[in-house]
Write a structure and sequence with these properties.
Blueprint: H1 2-16, H2 20-33, H3 43-57, H4 59-77, H5 83-106
Helix pairs in contact: 3-4, 4-5
Length: 107
């Protein structure tokens, strides 16, 4: 068994020997030409969330809230609205439009 392992190892060394200088040269070039990684800023992510927050609390968000409240009113008019669902919609709108004030209190 040991003779088989030694034979396999010798055959592997014979096969890989021609590639060793090229592999060492490639390793040296990659080590010499690499630059340190620079820290990335998160401005694209910040911009995305700022735009999303502005859209939800601005005129677009107010229009969506108006449509939601109108739908609640129409559903109440026809007797199809559950009181729990209506309260949850109103509480959700209060949290949405009061979120800037709530988060301002934490900062």
């Amino acid at each position: 068994m040991a003779k088989l392992i030694t034979s396999a190892r010798a055959s592997l060394h014979r096969c890989l020997r021609p590639f060793a200088p090229r592999a060492l040269a490639a390793l040296a070039m990659s080590l010499l030409t690499t630059a340190p990684a620079r820290a990335q800023d998160l401005s694209p992510i910040d911009t995305f969330f700022t735009t999303l927050g502005t859209a939800l609390t601005g005129t677009t968000g107010r229009a969506i809230g108006l449509v939601a409240l109108a739908a609640v009113g129409i559903a109440f008019l026809f007797g199809r609205m559950n009181l729990g669902l209506a309260v949850s919609i109103c509480v959700g709108l209060v949290i949405l439009f009061g979120s800037a004030t709530i988060l301002g209190g934490f900062a």
